[in-house]
Amino acid sequence: MQKPIVYDAPRPEPRALTAEALQSEIIEKLTYSVGKDPIVARPHDWLKATILAVRDRVIDQWMESSRQTWRTSHKRVYYLSLEFLIGRLMRDAMSNIGLMEPVQQALKNLKVDLGDLISLEPDAALGNGGLGRLAACFLESMSSIGIPAYGYGIRYAHGLFRQEMSEGWQVELPEDWLAHGNPWEFERRESAYEIGFGGHVEPITEPDGSLRHEWRPSEHLLAVAFDTPIVGWRGARVNTLRLWSAQPIDPILLDRFNSGDHIGALEESAKAEAITRVLYPADSTPAGQALRLRQEFFFSSASLQDIVRRHLQQYGDLGSLADKVAIQLNDTHPAISVAELMRILMDQHGLKWAQAWTLTRGVFGYTNHTLLPEALESWPVALLERLLPRHMQIIYSINAEVLTEARERAGFNDRQIASISLIDEHGTRRVRMGQLAFVGSHSINGVSALHTELMKQTVFSDLHRLYPERINNKTNGVTPRRWLMQCNPRLTKLITERIGPDFLDDIEKLTALDAHADDPIFQQQFAAVKRANKEALALLIKQRMNVVVSPDAMFDVQIKRIHEYKRQLLNIIEAVALYSAIRAHPEKAWVPRVKVFAGKAAPGYWNAKLIIKLINDVARVINGDPAVRGLLKVVFLPNYNVSLAETIIPAADLSEQISTAGMEASGTGNMKFALNGALTIGTLDGANVEMLEQVGDKNMVIFGLTAQQVADKRGRSEVPRSVIDNSPTLKDALESIASGVFSPDDPNRYRDLVGGLYDHDWFMVARDFDAYAAAQRKVDAIWSDPRRWWAMAIRNTAHMGWFSSDRTIRQYAEDIWNVPVART
Fold first, then answer.
1. What integer is the mean pLDDT of 43-71?
2. For residue 118, what are the contacts with CB-CB under 8 A and spacing of at least 6?
3. Are residues 625 and 730 in the same domain?
4. Is 158 inside any structural domain?
5. Of 381, 360, 373, which Cα lies nearest the Cα of 460?
6. Cβ–Cβ under 8 Å, residues 222 and 249
7. Are 669 and 785 in a shared domain?
8. How would you label 799-822 residue by residue, b for 16+ Cβ within 10 Å and e otherwise?
9. In the UniProt record, which is one GO cellular component term (predicted)?
């Protein structure tokens, strides 16, 4: 055991926070760290110098946060996630530690514009969508409310792809966010852990006659840590995001290289580095599946080794592990951690099965994010036996214990046993990672009230019967610092002027705005803020897409991952119907609309990519038709990321949250839009249900089938053709799409996409169309009454405080992790 930390060791004085001190230090960083004279410095040089000056002040508080945790021996939370969509960090850090104005003034004195620098910082390509952004919000909230925490993930060299458009088709290109380095991160060479794959398991008989197992991998590589500080609001705490980079143990096999086998000598290096090359490599092939599993085990093993090492360093034994450590599994990606921690505890530290199993379940919590079968991961047994033979043994042992308990204690029948088994015996035998995460955790939470209840009734119904105390709900939230204060400073300033600054520290105090919702003067001010944000988005659309849109139009926005259940298809079909109606009835007083789409489709998801192409094809026709008179514009903004969302969300008038009921676990975009004064059109799905409770049915536009109605229709295997035949508007829109009106170069391009709506319509696009179209006309009517619209918009903002990730994290801390939190 290492010697204890000496807390009275010399340490530097904290940096001054004045504009004068920052100005001097920025010049010093530019000269001695960047190596540039101010006379020739380019914007990216000023960006790096500014980040380094801000970072020094963050480090002061980072070090103090670490010292405080060691002094107090507080329980630590470890959040394991394959994604962390953290976005740009400089503005976040400056805002949270109160440096925005001093830095702005310092740069102004140097004739440099802070806004220009902020827009230059690359987005960290560490996530795909809601799952990764939620993890980032949670880390920031843990820092803000004083919870000692680490986030653990992968330092992807490219992360998710950069999306470009070629004739309306999605093209995937590498995202080179690390091309010029990352000034926020610190490599920790001392925190490097050996990760193994393959090989065999050696049984060893101990002197007392007991049997111990030793895994002897055939392949070894290193996981090397890179740390990024995550700053809490007002610098309450600075926690750590630790990302793992894969490196070969022997970068170049020199003897093979010198003998002429140049390619072979580099193979091991390339094989190791492939693990942290990209996020979500395609898993449609055996090689792709192996790489995905290698990624998941790589970061899980490195994280657990690091956690156990830190615990032993501070406490000296593992008996207190569950008292001092809480590990949250963000979806099934880190589920292999259950088996890996058992291996570490038993094989490396000599614990018996019973104690190891008790400790494992004591530390792990599992957050489920989906009811979609394809998203509840499973891996072929043969693949696990080949890559992780010891873990497969442990999984079999866990399964035997759980199934025995189910049979003997709960009296489960064969069907129920098959349902809860960690091994799916139907077809090719597969390990169910959702079941593994469930049985290995003391808490399993859903992320909205509806999702949690459906989880009990569907995917985990029999496990819920066996362990009825484990499933609980923790409705998602978003950090108001990034998603209001930073991305919408105009609105933040207006709210502060009207109700005072207390909401900055307790976002639920936004409810005071409700009393001002009908005030005509405040409505005008609120509308002026929205107008300015829409002008900024209109400029971005002109610059990127060469499409001119009017800020006077309603900005109708759907930005999220492209997936059939999220129903971008429903939205664009209704746009086609609206286009036809505008041309057929030019005499009507149509509400001008700009439909804004953004989102990425998984590279192997053909229908999602086809929907993107359809949106672009429809946009090309509508935007170029003079008969529309600019009353309808359609725009697809490529390469959706956090920074783009920060521009779009404050400008949105209407938020499209139209997923098939029962399929969206929660959603967080819905919360961000409403917080920024957008009205929601949506189904009773995910967190929309709880938003309706907070905001009231007079301030949202809800339509469509409920989750139960969707389940009933699917159960009856209804053919939707009659629904389409009985809806002339829908039928005409589908026929125009299927016949090639929007794809004259390939008239049959969308025939199968549309045909699927006639044959099965699994996602209820046809069945919900008429209700959706009627809801859109209701939206038109509200827009035509500005006083009503702005009163509703203000009330949306006023009642979104409950959806703060601070509230969510407090509930995790109190109900799952058992850690104290700071109170406002």
1. 94
2. 88, 90, 91
3. yes
4. yes
5. 373
6. yes
7. yes
8. bbbbbbbbbbbbbbbeebbebebe
9. cytoplasm
% of the chain beyond a pLDDT of 70: 96
Question: Distance of alpha carbon 715 from its chain centroid, rounded?
Answer: 32
For the CA atoms of 809, 811, 813, 818, what is the dihedral angle to 10 degrees? -170
pLDDT (tens digit per residue) in 697-756:
999 999 999 999 999 999 887 788 999 999 999 999 999 999 999 999 999 999 999 999
With a CB cutoff of 8 Å and minimum separation 6, the contacts of 753 are: 569, 607, 610, 611, 614, 737
pLDDT in the model for residue 824:
52
For 318-343, write each residue's pLDDT tens digit. 999 999 999 999 999 999 999 999 99
Question: Global pTM?
Answer: 0.95
Q: Is 333 strand, coil or helix?
A: coil
CA R_g for the chain: 27
Structure tokens at 188: 């920790």
Q: Judge if 449 and 518 occupy the same domain.
A: no
Write the DSSP string, 341-406: HHHIIIIIT---HHHHHHHHHHHEEEE-----GGGS-EEEHHHHHHH-HHHHHHHHHHHHHHHHHH
Paired with 329 in beta bridges are 80, 366
Q: Which two tokens stand for residue 216?
A: 């002897």
User: Does residue 591 share a domain with residue 461?
Assistant: no
Of residues 554, 523, 524, the one with CA closest to residue 537: 554
In contact, 638 and 601? CB cutoff 8 Å? no
Element (H, E) at 248: strand 238-248
DSSP 562-616: --GGGTHHHHHHHHHHHHHHHHH-TTS-PPPEEEEEE----TT-HHHHHHHHHHH
Extract the tokens encoding 5: 């930390």
For residue 291, pLDDT over 90 is answered with yes
Asked if residue 433 and residue 539 are part of one domain, the reply reads no
Residue 116 lies in a domain: no
CA distance 764 to 200: 49
CB atoms within 10 A of CB 286: 11
- Residue 534 shares a structural domain with residue 434: no
**Which residues in 394-417 are b (16+ Cβ under 10 Å) and which e?**
bbeebbeebbeebeeeeebeeebe
pLDDT at 822 over 90: no
> Which among 231, 181, 188 has a CA at the least distance from the CA of 56?
231
Q: Check pLDDT > 50 for residue 231.
A: yes
- State pLDDT tens for residues 563-598: 999 999 999 999 999 999 999 999 999 999 999 999
Q: For residues 213 and 267, state if they share a domain.
A: yes
Q: In total, how many domains does the chain have?
A: 2
| Measured distance CA(39)–CA(47) in Å, rounded | 15
- CATH number at 243 reads 3.40.50.2000
CA distance 112 to 548: 30
Whole domain around residue 756: which residue ranges?
496-803
Strand partners, 173: 162
Asked if 455 and 510 sit in the same domain, the reply is: no
- Catalytic residues, by residue number, are 369, 560-561, 566, 668, 672
- Cα–Cα distance, 782 to 699 (Å, whole number): 10
* Spatial distance between the Cα atoms of 537 and 529, rounded to a whole number of angstroms: 13
Residues 6 or more apart whose Cβ sits within 8 Å of residue 710? 660, 661, 662, 764
pLDDT of residue 1: 43
**CA-wise closest residue to 388 among 436, 327, 356, 441:** 436
How many Cβ atoms from other residues are within 10 Å of residue 200's Cβ?
Answer: 11
Domain assignment present for 98: no
Question: Does 39 fall in a domain?
Answer: no
Judge whether residue 262 has pLDDT over 80. no
335-383 pLDDT per residue, tens: 999 999 999 999 999 999 999 999 999 999 999 999 877 778 999 999 9
